[in-house]
Specification:
α4 runs parallel beside α5 (131-137), α7 (174-189) crosses α9 (226-237) and α16 packs across α17. The chain folds into four domains: 77-167 and 363-378, NAD(P)-binding Rossmann-like Domain (Rossmann fold), CATH 3.40.50; 171-350, Rossmann fold (3-Layer(aba) Sandwich); 392-535, D-3-phosphoglycerate dehydrogenase, domain 3 (60s Ribosomal Protein L30, Chain: A), CATH 3.30.1330.90; 542-619, Alpha-Beta Plaits. It is of the alpha/beta class and 620 residues long. β2, α3 (88-97) and β3 form a beta-alpha-beta unit. 32% of the residues lie in helices and 20% in strands. It binds 1,4-dihydronicotinamide adenine dinucleotide (NAI) and 2-oxo-3-(phosphonooxy)propanoic acid. 1,4-dihydronicotinamide adenine dinucleotide (NAI) is lined by residues 149-150, 173-174, 177, 222-228, 245-249, 277-280, 283-284, 305-307, 331-332, 355, 357-358, 458-461. Keywords: Amino-acid biosynthesis, Chloroplast, NAD, Oxidoreductase, Plastid, Serine biosynthesis, Transit peptide.
């Protein structure tokens, strides 16, 4: 049996059965059951790490990466460069297996000059691990450890190209960030930093610094993930009314904490205080801008311990000057450190801290240990649950399976980008249609890819084969699977189609909602390329490459030409176009593959065509 066939083998042995997998309670190295001989080889290949250059056999107790040293040769200790302050407890862990050099405050040139002498580099948010750094380290540098959550300072693509594994420490600083959010909230409301500065300057100004109370006020938490939900818990304890906006969070998780999930518009309109906890993604970049500030209550107060880039900082200065926003408390900035003459930082109604969210003794100890262990494990070639750029499957297994793996991820990405509103994702169902023997369909890898597609575009979590089920469980995503037999015994392809269904969820594109009220997308592989074949009730056929515009319109002649012309005029190259309709003369949808993202004006022009009822731009 081929490696890819082995990957699809199943222990279940029953066709057309429905089963819901409960994700494992504890994270463990995955055990993938295989029914046939040859499977073990495939299994060990799947589990070997990204930089794997030596395929290993299942008999080996530990898996290794990129070591050319034979087992009998004495192994030199790896060298680890720690470029930013790391907790002593983590340094102790590192020293047990590595020669450790701490070189804090290096200039970019110093880092470039040094990095080639090390097997691993550990950083926090203050060091830019650029393509140049990764190229300078090529040949020796195998692991970059980010002692914290956000990896926006690491060039992931360059790391992957250099065969360098990037690991992070995503959980140990959650509580610290939440506590800092609460600290800023209270400080801001009571003018603590302004009053402190005044008193130290000899001014006793009790009347000037009358604050506002928190109890009974409405706090909107934007981004109900790890940090946001901890802030919610604490704010409830302060007697605040907590609402939250997170289109991808499960409503029952919010309910359990006593927070109500609402739409973006409702959250910002109702809030007295707004606390930001979403990751910086293309969708959240500058989402707090003139328009959104305009919709807030006059006198709203804003806290940001997420990433500076989610706020248009010039617009915030304008809103502070006009009094629309009464106060802001900021731990993070678009550029760090911000300019010394930054109007925002110097604004009298703004409280600032220099990216201190994760900076508690306890969090730094936790993060340091978490990253030291992750780096140690990665250097030994063990599986890294917190690997950020680990590919799911090594090359030899990918040959036949690659398009299905990509299809599963892209359907997940597509489905999650269609989600809108306040209800959150209640459940995910993946339906595989296959002509293969039921024993030959283990869907673990495909399920992991769907999870990756759903989670990564909207969070700071990175999903790989090791952590997929754990991540889904942690986020409250219940992923049910169904396998449907396809009656085509001669079919060579492992799968006919994959359907991803998000149950009872609101959508940015009503055309993606099926009869049952679910967002439904279906795809299949054609000529080795993943294609989208169904959206909601509509059949389409568009290759899943580049980006996609979905457009719902009244079924009438000339629509393709109109939309095509608008895109052509703006130099947007159309790679694919397909129209699907439920019945003649009623409604149709157009799926248009485009190489580049059309600008706002172009999209508005498409929306202005009278027969167009709705449209959405999706990144694949
Ligand atoms: N200031 C500091 O020192 C620290 C900052 N952070 C930052 O805090 C942020 C949150 O971190 P975690 O909670 O660990 O991440 P997380 O991934 O657990 O949570 C992020 C949440 O935001 C939601 N989200 C995504 N797009 C959204 C949108 N458009 N609108 C509303 N919600 C959206 C996601 O569904 C997810 O639930 C990250 O940006 C992280 O880098 C984290 C730790 C320390
Ligand atoms: O973990 C994160 O995302 C943070 O923002 C913390 O950054 P730091 O490690 O304190 O430089």
């Amino acid at each position: 049996m081929s490696a890819s066939r082995a990957l699809l083998s199943s222990p279940h042995g029953v066709a057309s059965r429905t089963f819901t997998r409960a994700a494992p309670a504890r994270l463990a190295a995955p055990s993938i059951p295989f029914a046939r001989s040859g499977a073990l080889r495939a299994r060990s290949a799947i589990l070997s790490s990204p930089a794997a250059t030596v395929p290993v056999t299942s008999a080996e107790p530990k898996r290794r990466i990129s070591h050319s040293v034979s087992d009998s040769a004495p192994l030199a200790k790896p060298a680890v460069l720690v470029a930013e302050k790391l907790g002593e407890a983590g340094l102790e862990v590192l020293r047990q297996f590595a020669d450790v050099e701490c070189a804090y405050g290096m200039s970019p040139a110093e880092l470039l000059a040094k990095v080639a002498q090390f097997d691993a580099l550990i950083v926090r948010s203050g060091t830019k691990v650029t393509r140049g750094v990764l190229e300078a380290g090529r040949g020796r540098l195998r692991v970059v450890g980010r002692a914290g959550v956000g990896i926006d300072n690491v060039d992931l693509q360059a790391a992957t190209e250099a065969g360098c594994l990037v690991v992070n420490a995503p959980t140990a600083n959650t509580v610290a960030a939440a506590e800092h959010g609460i600290a800023l909230l209270a400080c801001m409301a009571r003018n603590v930093s302004q009053a402190d500065a005044a008193l130290k300057a000899g001014k006793w100004q009790r009347a000037k610094y009358v604050g506002v109370s928190l109890v009974g006020k409405t706090l909107a938490i934007m981004g109900f993930g790890k940090v946001g939900s901890e802030v919610a818990r604490r704010a409830k304890g302060l007697g605040m009314h907590v609402i939250a906006h997170d289109p991808y969070a499960p409503a029952d998780k919010a309910r359990a904490i006593g927070a109500e999930l609402v739409s973006f518009e409702e959250a910002i309109a109702k809030a007295d205080f707004i606390s930001l906890h979403m990751p910086l993604t293309p969708a959240t970049s500058k989402v707090f801008n003139d328009e959104s500030f305009g919709k807030m209550k006059t006198g709203v107060r804003i806290v940001n311990v997420a990433r500076g880039g989610v706020i248009d900082e010039d617009a915030l200065v304008r809103a502070l000057d006009s009094g629309k926003v009464a106060q802001a408390a900021l731990d993070v900035f678009t550029v760090e450190p911000p300019a010394k003459d930054s109007k925002l930082v110097l604004h009298e109604n703004v409280t600032v801290t220099p990216h201190l969210g994760a900076s508690t003794v306890e969090a730094q100890e936790g993060v340091a240990i978490e990253i030291a262990e992750a780096v140690g494990g990665a250097l030994r070639g063990e599986l890294a649950a917190t690997a950020v750029n680990a590919p799911m499957v090594p090359a030899e297994v990918m040959s036949e399976l690659a398009p299905y793996v990509s299809l599963a991820e892209k359907l997940g990405r597509l489905a999650v980008q269609l989600v809108a509103g306040e209800s959150g994702i209640k459940g995910v169902k993946v339906v595989y249609t296959s002509a293969r023997d039921p024993d030959d369909l283990d869907t673990r890898l495909l399920r992991a890819m769907v999870t990756k597609g759903i989670v990564e575009p909207v969070s700071s979590t990175f999903v790989n084969l090791v952590n997929a089920d754990y991540t889904a469980k942690q986020r409250g995503l219940r992923i049910a699977e169904e396998r449907v037999s396809h009656d085509n015994a001669a079919a060579e392809a492992p799968l006919e189609s994959i359907q991803v269904r998000l149950s009872h969820v609101q959508s940015r594109f009503a055309g993606a909602i099926s009869d049952g009220g679910d967002i439904v997308v279906v795809g299949r592989v054609k000529y080795g390329v993943p294609h989208l074949t169904v959206v909601g009730p509509y059949e389409v056929d568009v290759s899943l490459e580049g980006n996609l515009i979905l457009c719902r319109q009244v079924d009438q002649p000339g629509m393709i030409g109109k939309v095509g012309n608008i895109l052509g005029e703006r130099n947007v190259n159309v790679s694919f176009m397909s129209v699907g309709r439920t019945s003649r003369g009623k409604q149709a949808i157009m799926a248009i593959g485009v190489d580049e993202e059309p600008d706002k004006k172009t999209l508005e022009k498409i929306g202005a065509i009278p027969a167009v009822e709705e449209f959405v731009f999706l990144e694949l």
